[in-house]
Request: fold
Amino acid sequence: MIARLLRSFGYAASGIVSAVRREPNMRIHVAAAGSVTVLGALLGITRLEWAILLLAMGMVITTELINTAVERAVDLCTLEPHPLAKAAKDTAAGAVLAAAVFAAVIGVVIIIPYLWRQIT
Reply:
């Protein structure tokens, strides 16, 4: 039972690594999350602010992983262009965009006041 659980974690980790290696947008999201993490640490944000930022960053990474899975599954199902395939891919990409926009707004709301205090 534990071996099966560990294998499943290995498969999940493999999926994440594969997405980071093969998906340019995933690398952008990971780099942005890393930058926000460093900035938050330097600015000394509160625990609540950390929780909110981590939730936002996690949502972006998660939606990007789901988007990648949807794209791969659709590509596996059809080689021909199809309106439903396009709708599935576009909707999954839209979910990533929505998560990224909301995460950016959250980041601005939390980080800008700290930066403003630094320059004034």
